[in-house]
């Protein structure tokens, strides 16, 4: 597909990089000459210096023949205008990054009036991700599929867990009372594996399990993981993510203490969020954190604009005994190092945004095959979870999974049939209109027929 990316900052560059890897024809527009030069030297794409909201620049980029235009600059108004002009000039589909909370209130109206097909708010999406982690504090990450009916939860295996050292094929026989979920992936020594019948989970492994919400809940209750409840949270930084997060978790009965170093910003937040405690001060000051009861908190979330402050504060909170620590970090390459230091929950707004946009691109790409409904990049991009809807005439329909060939590096994780969750094993089969969730450690899959065949 021909895809124009407007704005080549962290998000735009990451999107372009992945689109090029999937062999799309990518054109990059940016106003900054240094950014354009960096893209020209690093990416196999046509790079144009100019304003993405300028019709002449867009026509130079071939917007009239573009399948998708992605506006990802730092300026919301510029992104919206770029989408409006692109649509008027012939672009088929537009995606805009819109961050300001004021625009969030009228998002549907703006999309309809400005020709924006998809509006993405990175800060709100990040806040939603954090709120899920606070609901399941033992989890490193949580993803949901099939309109929330299916969940995939990441957790750390510990010495004493009932499944440790038992081959997957023998688990049901040796631990018969363990709720039956699917072990979708395991990460060990920074390598992601899809466990086969002979695979044994070891202490320290990161385990990804999937199933319906009730079974997942029963599974972690059986393991004794769900005893911890989050009642109090300390937030570092008064940015947009903290604003959205507070709006989400205060109604859940969670008490929020927020640190903001700028008095004017703190005062504005106090007025917008009257039910939280806003402290004017440096949230990286360890003495101040202890004075405000850090060690008594159930969770600590570091959301300042500086990765280094987030990581150091997060490590301090973890060593102070806070059960759940979440840190914002834009450098996903450091993920393994941070995990080794004890920070299992590290989130990146840029990664979340680029993953969301790539999901929409992948869905648009495949209009003839078994269309992708949702796509999530997992484990820092090392794996993907893809949700398809099975079509009537596809070759795998009605055939038991054990009689089908499955592409190496993939796994049928969950089948949802008329609202019923099926954790698939060899005798199960796929029917027309089933929602099928596939886990893959290889990238670029866009059709279920690429995974299952005779």
Tell me about this structure:
- A hairpin with a 4-residue loop joins strand 7 and strand 8.
- This protein starts with a strand and ends with a strand.
- Helices cover 32% and strands 26% of the residues.
- The chain is globular, with a radius of gyration of 23 Å.
- The chain has 454 residues and is an alpha/beta fold.
- The strands form 5 sheets. Strands 3-2-1-4-5-6 form a 6-stranded parallel β-sheet, sandwiched between helices. The chain has a 6-stranded parallel β-sheet with strand order 14-13-12-15-16-17, with helices on both faces.
Average pLDDT across residues? 87
**Beta-strand percent range:** 25-35%
Cα separation of the termini = 29 Å
From the alpha-carbon coordinates, what is the Rg to the nearest angstrom? 23 Å
Q: How do the strands of the widest beta sheet line up side by side?
A: 3-2-1-4-5-6
Indicate the overall shape.
globular
Structural class: alpha/beta
Strand tally, please?
A: 24
Helix content range:
25-40%
DSSP summary: helix tally: 15
Biggest β-sheet, characterized? 6 strands, parallel
Q: Which regions contain 5 or more consecutive residues with pLDDT less than 50?
A: none
What tags apply to this protein structure?
6-stranded parallel beta sheet, 26% strand, alpha/beta, single chain, 15 helices, 454 residues
TL;DR of this structure?
This protein is 32% helix and 26% strand. The chain is of the alpha/beta class and 454 residues long.
């Amino acid at each position: 597909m021909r895809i124009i990316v407007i704005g080549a900052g962290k998000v735009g560059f990451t999107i372009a990089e992945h689109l090029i890897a999937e062999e799309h024809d990518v054109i990059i527009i940016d106003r900054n000459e240094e950014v354009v030069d960096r893209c020209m030297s690093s990416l196999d794409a046509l790079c144009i210096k100019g304003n993405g909201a300028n019709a002449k620049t867009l026509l130079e980029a071939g917007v009239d023949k573009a399948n998708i235009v992605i506006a990802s600059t730092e300026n919301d108004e510029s992104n919206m205008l770029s989408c409006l002009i692109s649509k008027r000039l012939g672009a088929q589909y537009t995606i805009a990054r819109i961050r300001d909370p004021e625009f969030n209130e009228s998002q549907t109206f703006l999309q309809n009036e400005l020709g924006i097909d998809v509006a993405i708010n990175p800060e709100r999406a990040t806040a939603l991700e954090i709120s899920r982690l606070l609901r399941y504090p033992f989890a490193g990450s949580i993803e949901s599929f099939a309109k929330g009916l299916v969940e995939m939860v990441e957790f750390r295996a510990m010495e004493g867990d009932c499944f440790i050292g038992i081959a997957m094929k023998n688990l049901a026989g040796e631990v018969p009372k363990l709720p039956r979920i699917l072990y979708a992936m395991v990460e060990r020594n920074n390598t992601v594996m899809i466990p086969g019948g002979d695979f044994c989970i070891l202490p320290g492994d990161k385990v990804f399990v999937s199933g319906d919400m009730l079974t997942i809940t029963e599974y972690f209750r059986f393991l004794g993981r769900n005893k911890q409840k989050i009642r109090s949270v300390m937030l570092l930084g008064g940015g947009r993510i903290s604003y959205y997060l507070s709006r989400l978790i205060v109604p859940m009965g969670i008490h929020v203490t927020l640190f903001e170093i700028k008095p004017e910003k703190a005062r504005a937040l106090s007025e917008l969020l009257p039910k939280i405690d806003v402290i004017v001060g440096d949230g990286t000051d360890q003495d101040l954190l202890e004075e405000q009861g850090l060690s008594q908190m159930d969770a600590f979330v570091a959301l300042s604009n500086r990765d280094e402050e987030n990581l150091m504060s997060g490590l301090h909170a973890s060593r102070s005994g806070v059960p759940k620590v979440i840190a914002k970090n834009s450098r996903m390459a450091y993920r393994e190092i941070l995990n080794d230091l004890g920070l299992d929950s590290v989130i990146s707004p840029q990664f979340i945004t680029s993953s969301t946009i790539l999901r929409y691109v992948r869905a648009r790409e495949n209009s003839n095959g078994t269309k992708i409904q949702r796509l999530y990049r997992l484990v820092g991009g090392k794996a993907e979870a893809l949700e398809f809807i099975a079509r009537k005439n596809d070759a795998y329909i009605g055939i038991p999974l054990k009689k089908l060939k499955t592409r190496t590096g993939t796994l049928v994780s969950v089948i949802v049939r008329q609202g019923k969750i099926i954790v698939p094993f060899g005798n199960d089969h796929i029917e027309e209109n089933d929602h099928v969730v596939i886990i893959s450690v290889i990238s670029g899959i866009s059709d279920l027929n690429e995974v299952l065949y005779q």
